[in-house]
Amino acid sequence: MPHSDIAKQVHKHKKTLLDILDTLPSIIVRVDRNGRINLVNRRFEQFSGITAAEAKGKLLQTLIPQFAGELQQVAVVIDCKSPLTNARIQSGSGANLRYYSLQIYPLDSDVSGMAVIRIDDITEHVRIEDIMAQTEKMIMISGMAAGMAHEINNPLGAILQHAQNIERRVSADIPANRKAAAEVGADLDLIRAYMQKRGIFDFISHIRSAGIRASDIISNMLHFSRRCDSGTEYIKLSELLDRVVELAGTDYDMKKKYDFPRIELQRFYAADLPPVQMSVTEIEQVVLNVIKNAAEAMADAGMERQPRITLRTRLSEGMAQIDIEDNGPGMDEATRLRIFEPFFSTKEVGVGTGLGLSVAYAIVTKGHHGLIEAHSRPGAGSCFTIKLPLKGRG
Amino acid sequence: MNNADIKVLLVDDDEMIRDCVAAYLEDEGFSVYCVASGEEALQLIAAIRPAVCISDMRLSGMNGEEFIVTAHTLSPETCYLIHTGMMYCLSDELHAIGMSADDVLLKPIHDLSKLVNKIKQCAAIRRCTQ
After folding, report:
1. Domains A3-121 and A233-389 alike in fold
2. Do A164 and B17 touch (CB under 8 A)?
3. How many inter-chain contacts (A to B, CB under 8 Å) are there?
4. Is the per-residue pLDDT at A351 higher than 80?
5. What's the complex ipTM?
6. What is residue A226's predicted lDDT score, i.e. its pLDDT?
7. Is pLDDT of A1 > 90?
């Protein structure tokens, strides 16, 4: 074969190879043992904003410093001929938080002393993993909650109802009580006077109110177990959100404790969003809960800037999406990851049950086959996103 | 109608629950019968023909749903209520004998006077339909 043909063939093969590399969605870079760049693909150019020609000969760790830690392993990988796989790197924070996987392979060819680095953006994958882990955890907790609720409801019933029976059996209005007292030589009025003097009526009333409080917690927990199909209807999200805002305005806690009227409300409703099938009272409860949490967080933080809640609706991937965003204190990653867990509360013990958002989670995910997520950054507010299938539970 | 003329059958395997509900209903003057299982209740129901039967769902032996479906064939004029500690969704069989979500009472009932009202309501409907 003539020399020029061979050169053409080589050029053709090289081009094919580069085409393949450029087609891959991964960042591919070939470096020497010091990290000096020998070859990059198009994805690298897009990611770093540096052309292949500019990158050649430069140290990779200086061009993409967020991966500098892992890139130190290049020499070790080459020397030991053992790849580094599945390093997971977190970069940025808040809305800019991204996850990457980084792999370093020693080049096992005549181009020895080199390594190939592959970097993939796995943010979406991590997010799905996150949701799945959360769902699994909630399913486990929900099973426990339902079982526990049943076991507790019977003794709670006995406590509550016997307390009511005690009140009635010393009541002056039931003739059988006077008769029984007389039979044992006692005077019902005196018994009642004694009980009053020693605060026994108050004790009984406290038993009942404490029992009712416990029972309310249990009944919230039961939201995790199988729910009966409460009636669903089609409603416009804008109508629902406006109604919740109105409801929030009349809520005692919202008015007195969280200074709701001071909060600026912004509403951006998508005009093209069709009505959504849902249990209106349940989704109202979810939205009210999220708004209440936002108002409370902003009130607790004693913010200097104007507190603001922004409500947005839009159509997203065939689902109806509601965003409830505040400009409050936000939360750290550890809090964000646990925010939907039952009994998880950042408040002092005794303030709130920590059930509100977990019930919201159960209503949206189990009750409506939807999705609820929280995004936040300390100091930069929080945004809760609720996605609902347009046709309800399906 | 005098409360004493209204027979109420309570089916619950928890003695505490039977006792506390029965005590309240007896103070209200109803004629209350208590049993711990669906099997015992089936033996009694045809003989006493209660106006109202209040049954738990989780029972030892046959469950509450099986019991109500069978009991309805023996005493169709009785009004059946479910008293349960779990979120319970009515089955098709129970819908078919005319039960509705209003007939499911979640434990614990905070105020038994509500149960009394429900029993009186059931007894009044039964009287009208007889």
Report:
1. no
2. no
3. 84
4. no
5. 0.86
6. 47
7. no
List the A308-316 sheet strands across, edge first: A264-268, A308-316, A319-326, A382-389, A371-376
| Annotated domain spans of chain A | 3-121, 128-224, 233-389
- To test the contact with chain B by mutation, choose from A148, A151, A154 the residue with the greatest count of B C-beta atoms within 10 A, namely A154
Give the class (CATH, top level) of A3-121.
alpha beta
Q: Count Cα neighbours of A172 within 13 Å in the Cβ-side half-sphere.
A: 9
Q: Which CATH superfamily is domain B3-129 in?
A: Response regulator (3.40.50.2300)
CB contact under 8 A, A160 and B21: no
pLDDT at A225: 52
What is the mean pLDDT of each successive set of 10 residues along chain B, which is 130 residues long? 90 94 95 96 94 94 95 95 86 91 91 94 77
* CB < 8 Å & 24+ apart, contacts of A46-55: A47/A119
Whether the CB-CB separation of A240 and A195 falls below 8 Å is answered with no
C-alpha A342/C-alpha A365 separation (Å) is 14
Closest CA to B110 of A146, A226, A207, A150: A207
Q: Given this model, what pLDDT does residue A342 score?
A: 72
Q: Which residue has the higher pLDDT, A377 or B6?
A: B6
**Helix axes of A123-169 and A200-221: crossing angle, nearest 10 degrees:** 150
Residue A320 φ/ψ, nearest 5 degrees: -85, 130
Cα–Cα distance measured from residue A57 to residue A119, given in angstroms and rounded to the nearest whole number: 19
The pLDDT confidence band at residue A350, using thresholds 50, 70 and 90, is: very low
Residue A292 exposure: Cα atoms within 13 Å on the Cβ side: 23
> What backbone torsions phi and psi does residue A261 show, to the nearest 5 degrees?
-60, -25
Domain boundaries, chain B: 3-129
Contact B20 A150 (CB under 8 A): no
Beta bridge partners of A323: A312, A385
* CA gap A259, A127 in Å, rounded: 35
State phi, psi for A289 to the nearest 5 degrees. -60, -45
Please tell me the least confidently modeled range out of A3-7, A364-368, B31-35. Answer: A3-7
Q: Quick one: which H or E segment has residue A385?
A: strand A382-389
Residue holding tokens 């479906």?
B69
Work out whether strand B104-106 and strand B79-84 pair parallel, antiparallel, or are unpaired. parallel
**In the CATH hierarchy, which fold is given to the domain comprising A233-389?**
Heat Shock Protein 90 (3.30.565)
Nearest CB to B87 within list A165, A168, A226: A226
Residue A224's nearest CA partner among A149, A284, A310, A286 is A149
